[in-house]
Amino acid sequence: MDFKLLSFLIFHYSITSSSIIASLPLPKQSLPTKSGYLSVNSTTNSAIFYTFYEARNPTAPLSQTPILIWLQGGPGCSSMLGNFYELGPWRVSSSHSHNAKHVTLTRNRESWNRIFGLLFLDNPIGVGFSIASTPEEIPRNQKDVAKHLYIAIKKFIKMNALFKNRAIYITGESYAGKYVPAIGYHVLKKNARLPVRSKVNLVGVVIGNGLTDPISQVATHAANAYYFGLVNDKQKRRLKSLQEKAISLAKNGNWSEATNARSEVLNTLQKMSGMPTLYNIRRHKPYQNYLVAEFLNDVEVKRALGVNETIVFEVCSKVVRKALHEDLMKSVKYMVEFLVKNTKVLLYEGQLDLRVGLVSTEAWVKRMKWEGIDKFLEADRKIWTVNGELAGYVQKWGNLSHVVVLNSGHLVPHDQPLNSQAMIEDWVLEKGLFANHHIENLSTSLSNVL
Ligand SMILES: *[C@@H]1O[C@H](CO)[C@@H](O)[C@H](O)[C@H]1NC(C)=O
Ligand SMILES: *[C@@H]1O[C@H](CO)[C@@H](O)[C@H](O)[C@H]1NC(C)=O
Ligand SMILES: *[C@@H]1O[C@H](CO)[C@@H](O)[C@H](O)[C@H]1NC(C)=O
Ligand SMILES: *[C@@H]1O[C@H](CO)[C@@H](O)[C@H](O)[C@H]1NC(C)=O
Ligand SMILES: *[C@@H]1O[C@H](CO)[C@@H](O)[C@H](O)[C@H]1NC(C)=O
Questions:
Q1: CA–CA dist 163, 161 (Å, integer)
Q2: Do 321 and 257 fall within a single domain?
Q3: Residue positions annotated with a catalytic role
Q4: pLDDT tens string 121-176
Q5: Exposure check for the chain: N or C terminus, fewer CB within 10 A?
Q6: Shortest-distance Cα residue to atom 9 of ligand 2
Q7: Model-level pTM?
Q8: 3-class SS at 412?
Q9: For 359-409, how does the pLDDT look when each residue is reduced to its tens digit (9 = 90+)?
Q10: Closest ligand to the CA of 255
Q11: Taking Cα atoms as reference points, which of 220, 208, 184, 176 lies closest to residue 366?
Q12: CA 156 to ligand 1 centroid distance, Å
């Protein structure tokens, strides 16, 4: 829908009752540039919901400005969480006035659409505002997830001549550690068989705190918790035996039971450690992601986004989670191996995440089958600073970059908005620590001359 036509919208919304308690003109710039539905099946009308935010301060003509696509994890969680709680240009926050709680939107100047276009897709169908006409149509594996995403992305690109040739980066977090490789792999395989004008201009993929190779990742919780000082040696052994159960079930192809066994590892860790959330070891209470649901269930907000008012928005869909239950422990590592040979790959993790953190990712990265892996593993983690402050570490060789984001949990763009923005911009533009060597050497010799 076209937001130029919309000039007013209810902006404050009461949590305590469903009545709207304050109406203010909604700043036009808080609305997405475009939002609505991308049909993935014309016979059933199932469709993927999207919001697109054009670059605020593009450094190139829009037709040459990259587009980042964001996919949330779960499985079953809405990319509107990423949009309104992490990396989008306006984020929800709660405030108090007149003895009532409100959800308000606050501008996020550290959003990922400062110099790039930013597209959020509610994936797969059944998630967030996306529509699954029947539960049977919800994908149960990554191949089917990728098929729908591919149709949606192609539709989006065709929607506007301005989108046609722009470089596309697929990004995502957590369970999108499965979706991102799956759609990236699908696009590259399709591209190989298509004429240039029909290819999707995929240039790179990004995974944050991702679940990608669950068998090697689930094996790391016990040691990680032990070295964080959360459990003692005896408890570590208990966690380890639970992990081994998850691993052996998965190795036997008993996927559903393996998923349950992994949940038991995490639940046991949470009980033993008393952590209010495993997403960030430093948080004293869980992330307030319910604010996103409060905001998006407002009728006026739904109207403004082009959503049927009768849809109830849930941050995470249990139905979709269930559909992908058997998929959860299956690996897509081989897809990342294919991607790193053919495009750029960025992996980043918030250091304080107890669910899918650094050692969890390194466990599969070091076992990657890729000709550059030894050189990558031999590279140092270089000290990464943003505005002169320590932000983390960057390890890079060739097409693979790995970033440690300090003082951050699972939701990196929420916890470290500025640093996450600096990371994505430098990586896309190959600047700073993400520069390729010959460019680095050129600038070094130039600065020596000057
Ligand atoms: C669309 O839905 C029909 C009916 O369920 C199904 O046969 C077909 O495979 C679906 N197409 C895609 C692309 O999912
Ligand atoms: C999977 O594991 C469960 C519980 O351990 C067991 O009851 C079931 O028979 C297993 N299924 C298969 C196919 O191995
Ligand atoms: C919204 O959805 C309901 C229930 O599916 C349907 O009856 C109604 O026609 C829809 N409204 C619009 C404006 O599409
Ligand atoms: C890195 O990706 C490029 C394509 O962008 C490819 O030509 C090259 O072979 C890849 N390098 C390695 C070492 O896989
Ligand atoms: C650039 O410098 C790095 C060390 O900083 C070196 O490893 C690399 O070989 C140099 N590359 C070129 C093209 O001179």
A1: 5
A2: no
A3: 174, 353, 410
A4: 999 999 999 999 999 999 999 999 999 999 999 999 999 999 999 999 999 999 99
A5: C
A6: 254
A7: 0.90
A8: helix
A9: 999 999 999 999 999 999 999 999 999 999 999 999 999 999 999 999 999
A10: 2
A11: 220
A12: 20
